[in-house]
Design a protein that fits this description.
Structural class: alpha+beta
Oligomer: single chain
């Protein structure tokens, strides 16, 4: 009986000694778990954003070039969207075959350096087809009249970078010193109620470009 009682007492003492250690271990594990849970919860919004569920990644999609004429832009090389983003605007335009007439006009007007050295501008760039709407005799006359050509080309340039949302109902001063107007929404925009944006939100190193289907004419 005595031996049995001694063993029971010894077991009770041992259990009492072990219990605080076990509780301490549980407490430590719980603290680590809570810290881990807290870290996971703190990281969760970033993960959701990275997956495109919300936040800045939602707006990145609308920052892409848009419009039917964008399909004709090369997928790679200097004339691609990525390639044009590396060059200033006049150089970038020279790598786009659809803008060759505009590039010729810019060179004749002596505006290559002016456009390439400007900062934070928007260029409304008429396509070759836009220039083809002008009777050839009239176009040739303008191309050989530097003062008139400069007036027309600088009317296509705004001294600030315009995002698509800015075009919804806008009126902007041009480098030619008169105003142009824009209107529209989503991926459908018009300049001066006549020229349609056929490939918009194209980025170059120093400008945003909106390619249009009609040459803009400043007021007399």
């Amino acid at each position: 009986m005595m031996n049995t009682r001694v063993r029971r007492i010894a077991m009770t003492v041992a259990a009492a000694a072990v219990l605080p250690l076990a509780l301490t271990a549980c407490s430590d594990d719980g603290g680590d778990s809570a810290s881990s849970d807290s870290s996971s919860k703190a990281a969760a919004p970033a993960t959701a954003s990275d997956d495109g569920m919300e936040g800045p990644t939602d707006t990145s999609a609308v920052d892409e070039p848009f419009g039917p004429a964008c399909a004709s832009v090369p997928e790679d090389g200097a004339g691609s969207f990525d390639g044009m983003a590396q060059d200033p605007v006049a150089t970038a335009a020279s790598n786009n075959p659809a803008l060759s007439t505009l590039v010729t006009a810019v060179k004749k007007a002596g505006l290559v350096d002016t456009l390439n050295n400007a900062q934070n501008i928007t260029v409304f760039a008429p396509t070759n087809d836009a220039f083809a709407k002008i009777p050839k005799a009239d176009l040739d006359k303008v191309l050989n009249d530097k003062a008139t050509l400069t007036k027309i080309l600088t009317y296509h340039v705004v001294g600030q970078k315009l995002a698509p949302a800015d075009l919804e109902n806008g009126s902007f001063d041009t480098l030619e010193k008169s105003k142009l107007t824009t209107s529209g929404s989503d991926e459908s925009y018009t300049v001066n109620d006549s020229a349609k944006v056929v490939c918009g939100n194209v980025k170059t190193a120093n400008a945003h470009v909106y390619i249009i289907d009609t040459v803009l004419m400043p007021g007399s």
